[in-house]
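Same chain as my last thread, 149 residues:
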Amino acid sequence: MKIKQLSIFLENKPGALIAPCSLLAKAGINIQTFSLADTREFGILRFVVKEWEKAQELLLQHGFTVRVTEICAIEVEDRPGGLVSILKVLEKAKVNVEYTYAFTAKYGGKGLILFRFDDVDRAIEALSKAGINVISTSELFKRLTENGN
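reply #2:
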């Protein structure tokens, strides 16, 4: 139920984002979802790809600093308060949300949100006990394929 996410550091300047994206595109690696956060000097590009090992090796070969982290894709009811119900479970389990970003595609009337936790295993356990669906890597990419992504 853990998904591998790649993070790379980029200078915060025009054109910095195109280099890693071009490398992945030329290698036929599709970015399924991503997030870009910035400061004045640098940005952190976080993204999910199916062939994460291949993407990691390619980026390392081209001089990028790459970090692999484990995140979770969690089904969220597409309604007011859907996210709140998940956050309450995490708060009760004393799990900290470090960051999150969402997929644009929906599946079965539900959204998917990617979460990075301070304790991934405890988060998965608490969410599963609460009946909240934490999506496996294979299920995630199956859904994306079915949605035409």
